[in-house]
Amino acid sequence: GNSVTQMEGPVTLSEEAFLTINCTYTATGYPSLFWYVQYPGEGLQLLLKATKADDKGSNKGFEATYRKETTSFHLEKGSVQVSDSAVYFCALRMKDAGNMLTFGGGTRLMVKP
Amino acid sequence: DAGVTQSPTHLIKTRGQQVTLRCSPKSGHDTVSWYQQALGQGPQFIFQYYEEEERQRGNFPDRFSGHQFPNYSSELNVNALLLGDSALYLCASSPMGGPTDTQYFGPGTRLTVL
């Protein structure tokens, strides 16, 4: 079946450090890929998405590129802020699977001032 | 414009009881999906409702059932609660027009089973 694997956390960084959170997927076909963020006590918010190979999703300084060759969608940010502290989820959606999202296990990011 | 709303916010039940959770989709959305998020894990898809019918279902037992009303709101029912059903239950809605990459999540209902 389809699955998503993320690096385990927590990831602890100092403010203004560079962030990478790894995400790889297994899918029978070409899914759409997403990063969602969950702040403490809140639901999920879509951070960015990419729908086909080589697409780059970006939002709020975060970026991720859909790499078909390596089946990856790593999340990056050049300079993190304390306010970026949250749990980040990588997810995929197969186009023949309705709106069903398959999520990774999440990576907690903690940014220290 | 209100986003996706869910009620109640928190709920405590005992094993064997039944529970009903509610979701109102974002304005203009007609499709509702439900997810279960156990502590420290990613959300898992339970099922999706569109035009008042269950369209897709994840790997969850029949104890989990749902309903969608003509106003597109939805309920999730869980019977014969188990300790393992303790989780955050998330509702997501998406706009009319079929499967889409655009989904909005509600804040969730935290269910604790004692």
Description:
The complex is a heterodimer of chains A (113) and B (114). Chain A is mostly beta strands and 113 residues long. Chain A has no helices and 12 strands. Chain A has strands at 3-6, 11-14, 19-21, 23-26, 32-38, 44-50, 56-59, 62-65, 75-77, 86-93, 102-103, 107-112. In chain A, strand 10 and strand 11 (102-103) form a beta hairpin. The mean pLDDT of chain A is 94. Chain B is mostly beta strands. In chain B, 0% of the residues lie in helices and 53% in strands. Chain B contains no helices and 11 strands. Chain B has strands at residues 5-7, 10-13, 19-24, 29-37, 44-50, 53-57, 64-68, 74-78, 87-95, 104-105, 109-113. In chain B, the strands form 2 sheets. In chain B, strands 2, 4, 5, 6, 9, 10 and 11 form a 7-stranded mixed β-sheet that branches. The radius of gyration of chain B is 13 Å and the shape is globular. The termini of chain B are far apart. The mean pLDDT of chain B is 93. The chains are: A mainly beta (113), B mainly beta (114).
Largest interface: A-B, 26 and 28 residues
Shape of chain B: globular
Assess the beta-strand content of chain B as a share of residues. Answer: over 45%
Put simply, the count of helices of chain A is 0
Could you estimate the helical fraction of the residues of chain B in percent? under 10%
- Secondary structure tally: strands of chain A: 12
The helix tally of chain B amounts to 0
Mass-distribution shape of chain A? globular
User: Biggest sheet of chain B, open or closed, and with what strands and sense?
Assistant: 7 strands, mixed
The percentage of residues in β strands of chain A lies in over 45%
SSE order of chain A, as H and E? EEEEEEEEEEEE
Q: Using the CA coordinates, give the radius of gyration of chain B.
A: 13 Å
Count of distinct strands of chain B: 11
Oligomer: heterodimer
Biggest sheet character of chain A: 6 strands, mixed
Uncertain spans of chain A, ≥5 residues at pLDDT below 50? Answer: none
First-last Cα distance of chain A? 41 Å
Helical residue percent of chain A?
under 10%
Q: Mean pLDDT of chain B, as a whole number?
A: 93
